[in-house]
Design brief:
Elements: E1 17-18, E2 21-22, E3 32-35, H1 54-65, E4 74-77, H2 84-87, H3 93-105, H4 125-145, E5 150-153, H5 174-184, E6 190-194, H6 201-206, E7 213-220, E8 244-249, H7 255-273, E9 277-281, H8 299-316, E10 321-324, H9 335-346, H10 359-369, H11 397-409
Parallel strand pairs: 3-4, 3-5, 5-10, 6-7, 6-9, 7-8, 9-10
Antiparallel strand pairs: 1-2
Helix pairs in contact: 1-9, 4-5, 7-8, 7-11, 8-9
């Protein structure tokens, strides 16, 4: 990744179907799937809650106004609710029943995380959350089966949901359900990479014992931020040693340190694991304007990470890439730009960072919120960093965090923490 610019040539090695069952379709003609329909706006905890569905609508409207959804090879696909049987592949049946009771009768169940400040009960809670799951599941299957080259579900990435409880604004774990289905369909190795400011604890918990899944999370240290987990020593169970990779960064980490950590951990871990499918979570709450975390990662750096993950998907999985949303609570100025960039990258139509935000979108935002939002698709940041290969600085807090992760998990992946 190094000092590379945010621009770059697009990879051409598109997927040809399953790793063990090549498709007879022309991979150059495979569409990109974007999961979207107005019904997905139903996942909303109500006025004043950070997890507002407005951020989703604003993202899609921005992608439309940038022309990203006009490509005939891009398909917008909605989703119905996932079945209880499907949800039970990850979630305890008693918990699914509790979500139904919350949605249908307003029944609070704080022991299962329902009716808390983070996860207040709302009408249609079950259906709305189950619809997100189905969207991610169908996206993953489309990529695995070779009917789409990449897929994006910005409504997904609900990475805190546990098998038996809601947590951190997340009711059902869409990534967990989709990955489990991929395994059932024959995938032997699935990698999950999470760049949300908060640790991807729910997905890690679901696959803690499963050596077929690698979970990688790059996040602000749990010493300072919910959910208080994600330390380097969390490396998977005895049945899946090295199956969890956690990079716990100091509060205040900015572009240069965040990208250096990504460079030092993610490519090497993925190459060692050799996944057949890559699932990524792009929570954008690492931005300095986000009210719920304390990292300082620009739109430009987050765009570069998405581009790098796209490149790694082409390098390692013949392009099988499912990209999800996640956290992000700077609703006007950050989330729509980061996720519009993600859609553009997945659609092989990356948006030049110097592009002006369309005036149509800014006018809509001004009329609705009283101010126009960001003027450019860039924060004006260089997104430059020094690669890990340039050497380790023991006096630097970020470098110490990186080294702790490499020392804890690289040997379990067959890697040399000093050289790989």
């Amino acid at each position: 990744m190094g000092q590379a610019s945010a621009a770059g040539e697009e990879p051409t090695d598109l997927p040809s179907g399953r790793a063990d069952e090549p498709s007879d379709k022309d991979p150059a003609r495979l569409p990109v799937r974007v999961v979207w329909s107005p019904e997905l706006l139903g996942y909303d905890f109500g006025h004043g809650h950070p997890m507002t569905s407005e951020r989703l609508e604003l993202t899609i409207r921005l992608a439309e106004d940038l022309g990203l959804l006009d490509d005939p090879d891009l398909e917008l696909v909605g989703a119905g609710p996932a079945s209880d049987e499907l949800l039970a592949t990850v979630h305890e049946p008693a918990y699914v029943a509790a979500v139904h009771a919350a949605a249908e009768r307003g029944t609070r169940d704080p022991a299962r995380g329902l009716g808390t400040e983070d996860d207040p009960v709302f009408a249609d809670m079950h259906e709305a959350a189950a619809r997100v799951v189905q969207g991610t599941l169908e996206a993953a299957l489309a990529v695995w089966e070779g009917s789409a080259v990449h897929a994006v579900n910005v409504t997904g990435g609900l990475h805190h949901a546990m098998p038996g409880a809601a947590s951190g604004f997340c009711v059902y774990n869409d990534a967990g359900v989709a990955i489990r289905r991929l395994l059932a369909e024959g995938a032997e190795r699935v990698a999950y990479v999470d760049v949300d400011a908060h640790h991807g604890d729910g997905v890690q918990a679901v696959f803690w014992d499963d050596p077929r899944v690698l979970t990688v999370s790059l996040h602000e240290t749990g010493h300072m931020l919910f959910p208080g987990t994600g330390y380097p020593r969390e490396t998977g169970s005895e049945r899946a040693p090295g199956g969890a990779v956690n990079v716990a960064l100091p509060s205040g980490t900015a572009d240069a340190g965040w990208l250096r950590a990504f460079d030092a951990i993610v490519p090497a871990a993925l190459r060692a694991f050799e996944p057949q499918v890559l699932v990524t979570q792009h929570g954008c709450d690492a931005h300095p304007q986000d009210p719920l975390a304390s990292l300082r990662v620009s739109v430009d750096a987050q765009r570069l990470a998405a581009q790098r993950l796209h490149e790694l998907a082409h390098e390692l999985t013949t392009g099988r890439w499912v990209a999800l949303g996640g956290g992000g609570y700077a609703v006007l100025d950050v989330v729509p730009r980061v996720w519009a960039h993600l859609i553009g990258i997945a659609a092989h139509r990356p948006v030049d960072p110097t592009t002006a935000v369309p005036e149509r979108w800014r006018s809509m935002v001004r009329d609705r919120y009283g101010r126009p939002g960001a003027a450019s698709m860039s924060d004006g940041a260089s997104a430059a960093f020094t690669p890990w290969s340039a050497g380790y600085d023991p006096s630097d807090d970020v470098d110490r965090a990186i080294r702790a992760t490499r020392a804890a998990v690289f040997p379990l992946l067959g890697l040399d923490p000093e050289h790989d």
